[in-house]
Request: fold
Amino acid sequence: MDERESLDQLLEIMREHDLDALTLRAGATTYELVRRGPVVAAAAAPIAAAAPPPVAVAPAAAGANFKKVTAPIIGVFYRAPSPGADSFVEVGQRVEVGQVLCILEAMKLMNEITSDHAGVVRRILPENGALVTLGEEMFWIEP
Reply:
């Protein structure tokens, strides 16, 4: 199967399941498909797996030094325990091992995700209310 056929199959999965975005990692390469309006567009070139766009407090070169908290399950990412409540953590905040970072809702169950690392939160990757996939990076923590 060639790359174009694979891409067509992924686009069909997105349409079939009404997905707005789909990220696929193959080795060190990450492909991201994003729906833009009524058309599904594909990234023209692979995106480096370990190089998400940097933010002011997280220079790209420092990304490799961070401890990364990944999603242990597929679910909807929530930064706060309830709508209107304060977020569990903010960028720049110090966290301890076992501290709740977010909630992942899966099959109407609210799963608290805790930190395995002590340090300062340097990046929160998913948007509030976004669907995260198994193994997707959610937080960067600088020890």
In short: The CA atoms of residues 71 and 135 lie 5 Å apart. The chain has a mean pLDDT of 78.
